[in-house]
Sequence to fold (97 residues):
Amino acid sequence: MTVFAVEYVYDAESSEIRDASRPAHREWTAGLAREGALLASGPYGDGAGALLILKAADEAALNDILRQDPFAAAGAISGTRTTEWAPVTGLLAPHAA
Fold:
């Protein structure tokens, strides 16, 4: 499994959409965490986006996971940046391939 850092970018105008979709989004992230696919996630302090650390077989599998996010279905995400990441120190290091 590969670890990926996924950055979400939110439009300032999407706060109402995010507020309405947040319960379903958090249920989705909680399910991924229970499955072991989501290692950590949360919004940035300035509200401009969020960071998700996920494990997936490859980028295609990761994209399949991300398409299921209720935020994506609601149009709350204006951009994403996905990067393969190799944590070498700290709590997430054991998850590196």
Remarks:
- The radius of gyration is 13 Å.
- The mean pLDDT is 95.
- Strands lie at 2-9, 38-43, 49-56, 79-85.
- Helices lie at 15-35, 59-67, 70-74.
